[in-house]
Amino acid sequence: MTQAYNVSPIGFMRSCFKEKFAIPRQPQLAPAARGVLELVAPFDQGDAVQGLEQVSHVWLLFLFHQALEDKPRLKVRPPRLGGNQSMGVFATRATHRPNGIGQSVVKLDKVEAGRLWLSGIDLLDGTPVLDVKPYVPYADVIVDARNSMAAAAPAMIPVQWADAALAQAREHAMRLEEPLIELIEQCLAQDPRPAYQTPTPERRYGAQFWDLDVRWHYPQPGVIWVLEVVPAAVS
Ligand code: SAM
């Protein structure tokens, strides 16, 4: 019988992303996506992070806690391929995978005892984090690396604002002390809509960033228009 191992979180992510929809597909795609890794005991002491201030980026190993499944899949349909082509699970970064483990290189902005301030994240709020490791450029940068299936970052589409939505976003950015306009633009420019959907101008889309509901539509194919940025309904 295969040996099973237990792992337990060293902390939990407090993230700008409150739902899976509209989170970038990889880290670094939205530099304005920020969050704090709250370490739990015994790792919430200065000793555990001593020396980390010498490091600009870290690897996070975490659990896709909102995509865990009992039955392992061998093939998945990555959104990157339009969701209609299946691939071996080990050829993709799909969230549905054996052991549900994700990995992301993120920017380390500030270190405190018990807290790491991070940006460029692609983790949902509440994500259990299993480990943190320093990014080591001489070993982790592979200049001649190749991935023909995901050769470049997703194409960007223009994001435009209704005047009222931009005013709302400015006000909430000041309140939150966060680069909210950049966050919304960077995430929506990657066009979170499933590739198989052709949106009509009437159709409204929405996602929660921080404590805000952001709503948008597609006035024409390939253009996003932000309609409003309003306090999220309390669930
Ligand atoms: N960079 C990681 C990796 O390669 O393992 C994640 C890649 S995965 C394709 C990115 C997606 O994971 C995001 O778009 C988001 O919707 C989803 N995600 C992030 N945190 C999650 C969580 N805790 N549970 C389930 N899905 C999550």
Note the main attributes of this structure.
binds S-adenosylmethionine, 6-stranded antiparallel beta barrel, YaeB-like fold, 4-stranded mixed sheet, 2 domains, alpha+beta, 12 strands, 235 residues, Elongation Factor Tu (Ef-tu), domain 3
List the helices and strands and how they pair.
Layout: E1 11-15, E2 34-39, H1 46-49, E3 57-63, E4 75-76, E5 87-88, E6 101-112, E7 115-119, E8 128-134, H2 137-140, E9 159-161, H3 163-176, H4 180-188, E10 205-209, E11 212-220, E12 223-231
Parallel strand pairs: 9-12
Antiparallel strand pairs: 1-2, 1-8, 2-7, 3-6, 3-8, 4-5, 6-7, 10-11, 11-12
Bound molecules: S-adenosylmethionine (SAM).
Structure description:
- By secondary structure, the chain is an alpha+beta fold.
- It folds into two domains: 11-148, Elongation Factor Tu (Ef-tu), domain 3, CATH 2.40.30.70; 159-231, YaeB-like fold (2-Layer Sandwich).
- Helix content is 13%, strand content 31%.
- The protein has a six-stranded antiparallel β-barrel.
- A hairpin with a 2-residue loop joins strand 11 (212-220) and strand 12 (223-231).
- The longest helix has 14 residues, at 163-176.
- It starts with 10 loop residues before the first strand and ends with a strand.
- The protein binds S-adenosylmethionine.
- The site of S-adenosylmethionine has 18 residues, from strand 6.
